[in-house]
Amino acid sequence: MTSRKGAALDPRSPEYQWVARVIRSVERRTGSPTRWNGTVYEEENQNFLGAAHPDGSMTLNLAKVLDPVRIAYTAGRPLSPDEEFRARDAVVTVVHEAAHLCSRPGDEAVRGSHPAHDVAGRTLEEGLIENWAHENVDSVIYDVGLDRTAPGVLNHRGTDAYPGYSGAARELVDGLARRSGQLSSDQVARQLVRTDRSQRWNAAADLVIDNRFAGLMPEEHRQTVRHQLVAPMRMAFAAVQAMQQDRSLVGAVKRVRSRRATISALGALDAAVTRIEQHYRDWHWQQAQQTRPDVEQQARREQQRSEFQPAPYREGRKRKRRWILPQGGRQPAGQPQRVPPPGEQQTRWRRRRG
Q1: 211 and 181 in contact (C-beta within 8 Å)?
Q2: What predicted TM-score, i.e. pTM, was given to this entire model?
Q3: Are residues 115 and 84 located together in one domain of the fold?
Q4: Domain limits at 240?
Q5: Residues 279 and 134 in one domain
Q6: Residue 25 falls within a domain, yes or no?
Q7: What are residue 52's phi and psi, to 5 degrees?
């Protein structure tokens, strides 16, 4: 099923002007410029409440979105609880699609980018946007003045259209906030929504990298480490789509199962972080052992020579410490060793006597 564009709304109509105010409010609150091209169409596919299109236009269902909002503004009487719920749900729909238009696809040709429109990318996009819409709809309602006309809309909670996607995204955001060491869940969610879709997974990995590997990881290793941290997250989000599309599952079950899948992915991320961190700590420890002056051992050798060797022989003989590669090559003197990235086989220096 795909969205189908119907008739375009007249820019002079109250419906169009209200949608424009919502889009401007969302643009201001996301902090990301909108891609809206100024056109709003009626949605002809009755299975769709609305859609944001690649050309920057928006479609909205006339009966299920625009009419409930029109009634809320023009009824001239207190709304029934059902009318209040439908009006609020309509606002959530417009906020959701407006937030999509504030989400930039990004350049997938950039090195290290991830597909913006594959299964994992779409799951993350829909989950982040749905959560953002529900968390910010009250603020948008205040911005467009609907609270003054129909204050009862603030007493309801809109329908979660994507419980599987939103559950996975919520668990990921909360997990990243805990692992960032300094950001709240709201800050992480806002940062991911503002980030280009092709770079969102890298931004998620950077939250962990900057907290756990500061001072350990060379900056040139960032892309390699990102890849190892992103892999389990993308795999889990790709699997969530089947849960969301399974019509035999109710929304609560979809939400629970998607959160469990994300928790498992975060566990795999933690295992990768521990392995990578140990890799760098081991390497730094090895370098410290190799470069540290061994004063005590040198003193013991000198003492042994003075006790057991004749003086002329002591003065003429000098033992040399040599470091060799397993292939027999000599370690370059005075040159710092390159730390290998995680996953690359290390060349270990060993000491030979004589």
Answers
A1: yes
A2: 0.82
A3: no
A4: 109-291
A5: yes
A6: yes
A7: -105, 125
